Amino acid sequence: MFRFLKEVVAGSGAGIKDLPYNVGEPYPSAWGSWTHYRGTSKDDGSMVSIFSLSGSNSQDGHLAAGRNGVKRLRTVRHPNILSFLHSTEAEIFDGSTTKHTIYIVTEPVTPLSEKIKELSLEGTQRDEYFAWGLQQISKAVNFLNNDCKLVHGNVCLASVVVTQTLDWKLHAFDALSEFDGNNEASNSAMLQFEWLIGSQYKPMELSKSDWAAIKKSPPWAIDSWGLGCLIYELFSGMKLAKTEELRNTAFIPKSLLPDYQRLLSSTPSRRLNPLKLIDNSEFFQSKLVETIQFMEILNLKDSVEKDSFFRKLPNLAEQLPRQIVLKKLLPLLASALEFGSASAPALTALLKMGSWLSAEEFSAKVLPTIVKLFASNDRAIRVGLLQHIDQFGESLSAQIIDEKIFPHVATGFSDTSAFLRELSLKSMLVLAPKLSQRTISGSLLKYLSKLQVDEEPAIRTNTTILLGNIASYLNEGTRRRVLINAFTVRALRDNFAPARAAGIMALSATSSYYDVMEIATRILPNIVVLTIDPDGDVRTKAFQAVDQFLLLAKQHHEKLVAGDNSETAGTGMPLIPGNASLLGWAMSSLTLKGKASEHAPLASANANTSQISATSNANSVMDTQNVVPIHVSLGTHTSDQPRPPSPTSTDAGWGELENGLLHEDHDSDKSGWDDIDPVEEQKPPLLASIQAAQRRPVVQPKPAASSLRPKTTSKPSKAEDDDLWGAIAAPAPKTASRSLNVKSASLQDDDDLWGSIAAPPPKTTRPLNPKTTMASDDSDPWAAIAAAPPNTKAKPLSLGRGRGVKPAPAKLGAQRIDRTSLSGL
User: Fold this and answer.
1) Where is the composition biased (Low complexity) (predicted)?
2) For position 187, what pLDDT does the model report?
């Protein structure tokens, strides 16, 4: 016998002292004499159901039957039988009387009659849900009768409850007994508590208490009759009042009618076995039943069956009862994806079902699964997440994105698949606004720096677009350090025309972040060059950008004329109408939904992401441009187009960021924009800057004593002894690489603030050394007024031999120094 824990509580109306659950409001209906309460756990607040049964004394028949039900419910476990959690029996003193009460705590459930009213299903959807529920109760009865040799005795509408996932479960085990079919001659009662069963639910043999006939019948005879009663109550919508009402079959669906009549056969031995009802009933062959059954045995299906099923599921879900889909199918689907038994197409179905939920329910039921899926190594799952990130990205918190999602998404930036790199880039439009400044500066910008020299033109173009869109989320120091370098040094010099157009539009869209000095010295010079670009779209956008930035400069000039010398950085001038559409264009370009054709790594990626277009209104100076597909020829254009030698080179970096978080991996990779003067440095006065720029081409280190030897074009070893120009010759370069660096510096100094007005270097007609004695260190205050070096009319010995000496080819880096001018002094 089951051992009960009894709690004796003093005081009128006192509850159970140590019951670890709170008893809530009761439901209006319950089976038999039981009362069904809502309840919660005192530990974690989780929902439970609490059933109570009271009697005047401990020997009360109802209490005895209740104890039998508790024992059976605790020992019999099945997916379609109510799950037992806790039980206790207490004595409550109410004034002069003592009240004995049994409490059973189970999983949270609702009476079936109440749930049917709540769902309010009609027509086909009602029949499909009833088919699913009846099949579950039939499985429970089959388990009791055929597997356990037990007889429930009172299967009806009141003995069925519904879980939060809308599963039907059997309970009310007070009359449950073993089937004693071995002793057929005995007339003893097989069901000890058969008096609890309502007369309208009793079959003929049970009403007559013909125990001999019952024992000769199959174990399912009594409960099959009960299943017939349940079917009648379900479809009629009324509680069975008397047995004769079962003859009315007007409410029963035609596909279920033959099985209904066999369940209610007057001959016990001919009643339909619940197992055959499950396997053979035509009524159970519905879309809902088949869908849920497939999901429950998903691990047994092969990959082909899974793919076919999940591709059909989004459309199928629209035809099924919405509440069943959200409360039953959605949890099954989320669990299958989380534990890896579902394939990638299931993600589309999950997100579609999730779109039918409220924001709170979506965050509770769908987002946890999505966050876990980002850690999946399945590339198809990752592609699906990135393609649909706009559907759930807004629901993700900043902390989850920064700590749990971005580290996994960032692996796609360096993936070998161009399609996945592109999707990872596009996802940043949704994720970047919620990233911390440390993550943006320390990780994201580093990845974008690499993607801006990606081998795929579409990726380079969209990287520029993305930078223009997330500029507002960068801190001021990072913006000033990164944006101009990214847009001018790389985007405007890309050999892919849409990438150059994107760079122009990005500069225009972020114009409020640049001061007038940057506009005049770094932005306009780079944009003006593109006014003669071979691509017409680039030229058009270049002219519009020039007009916009000239307008900003003109407004600054007008302020100065008016006497307003205040700082003009970040004035936030409005964009011209044409460029005002950059954000909208970038959004439409970057958030294209993934289609089946996109799974081609290159062709589909190009078709969806590298189209550059701009819209304008009637007052806009920009005409609507045609879409530029990515398959435009990538060959170089005219020689006067400023673009890097190879956009796919690995020279990376936008310089060291202000907070020191962005560093390149190798020193050799820092050749991109490291030679550009930092924007933050204090600018020199106007005259001093011009003088510095004029001196720069000829400034050389002091000559070393060991290098005051000429280098001739014929025999250097012999000329060292008899060269008459040794006393005044310029020092030889220290190393060959130093000579190369001189030219490299002059060629790469494209962004020199004063390069356009610097004095031109003198011409030369003879090979010269890259160092000169007339140039001194910048720290020498007398360098500008030092006396000129001596000269002589003597000729080198090599010229007196009567042989014409051809001037040697000029060495790299020496074109800016004119030695012939010294001989005329």
Assistant:
1) 781-790
2) 56
Nearest to 159 by CA among 217, 109, 207, 86: 109
Q: How many angstroms separate the CA atoms of 382 and 375, rounded? A: 9
CB atoms within 10 A of CB 208: 11
CB 317 within 8 A of CB 353: yes
State both tokens at 548. Answer: 């916009």
Token reading at 91: 């004595």
The residue to which tokens 């039921």 are assigned: 365
Task: Tell me how far apart the alpha carbons of residues 355 and 615 are, in angstroms, rounded to a whole number.
Answer: 32
Report H helices in 220-329: 221-236, 257-263, 274-280, 287-296, 303-319, 322-324
Structure-block tokens of residue 278:
């499950």
**Alpha carbon 165 to chain centroid, angstroms:** 27
What CA–CA distance (Å, rounded) separates 633 from 460?
15
Helix axes 346-354, 303-319, angle to 10 degrees: 20
In angstroms, rounded to a whole number, what is the distance separating the alpha carbons of residues 164 and 47? 10
For 599-617, the pLDDT digits (tens) are 333 333 333 333 333 333 3
Amino acid at 159: S
- Contacting residues for 35 by C-beta, under 8 A, at least 6 apart: 26, 51, 52, 53
pLDDT, one tens digit per residue, over 712-757 is 333 444 444 444 333 334 344 444 333 333 333 333 444 443 344 4
Q: What angle do CA 641, 738, 750 make, to 5 degrees?
A: 25
Residue of 438, 439, 366 lying closest to 409 (CA atoms)? 439
Element (H, E) at 387: helix 379-387
Q: Which two structure tokens, joined as six digits, stand for 296?
A: 């429950």
Closest C-alpha among 143, 170, 174 to residue 157: 170
Helix residue ranges per DSSP H, 562-602: 582-590
- Please tell me the distance from the alpha carbon of residue 391 to that of residue 370, in angstroms, as a whole number: 11
Question: 66, 192 in Cβ contact below 8 A?
Answer: no
What H or E segment, with its residue span, contains residue 66?
A: helix 61-75
- pLDDT of amino acid 639: 35
**Helix 379-387 vs helix 418-431: crossing angle, to nearest 10:** 40
Beta partners for residue 6, in sequence order: 89
Nearest-Å Rg of the Cα atoms of the chain is 43
Per-residue confidence (pLDDT) for residue 90, from 0 to 100: 86
**In this predicted structure, what is the pLDDT of residue 695?**
54
Residues 6+ apart with CB under 8 A from 75: none
Q: Report the alpha-carbon distance of residue 425 to residue 443 in Å, rounded.
A: 13
Q: Which of 61, 64, 52, 62 is nearest to 16 (CA)?
A: 52
DSSP state of 376: -
396 contact partners, CB below 8 Å, separation of at least 6 = 367, 371, 405, 431, 434
For residue 53, which amino acid is it?
L
Per-residue pLDDT, 213 = 87
What number of other Cβ atoms are within 10 A of residue 341's Cβ?
Answer: 15
What are the tokens at 525?
């010079």
Q: Residue 604: exposed, middle, or buried by beta-carbon count in 10 A (0-12, 13-18, 19+)?
A: middle
Phi then psi for 37, rounded to 5 degrees?
-110, 150
Q: How distant is the alpha carbon of residue 432 from its chain centre?
A: 11
Q: How far apart are CA 721 and CA 360, in angstroms?
A: 92
For the chain, the straight-line distance linking the first and the last C-alpha, in angstroms and rounded, comes to: 125
User: Are the beta carbons of 21 and 46 closer than 8 angstroms?
Assistant: no
- Single-letter code of the amino acid located at 264: L
Give this prediction's pTM: 0.65
Cβ–Cβ under 8 Å, residues 175 and 153: yes
Q: Which residue ranges in the chain fall short of pLDDT 70?
A: 1-17, 95, 181-189, 564-825
The CB density around residue 699, as the number of other CB atoms within 10 Å, is: 13
Cα distance between residue 89 and residue 53, in whole Å: 9
Q: Calculate ∠ Cα 615-620-626, nearest 5°.
A: 30
- Strands of the sheet containing 97-106, edge to edge, are 6-9, 84-94, 97-106, 47-55, 35-41, 21-26
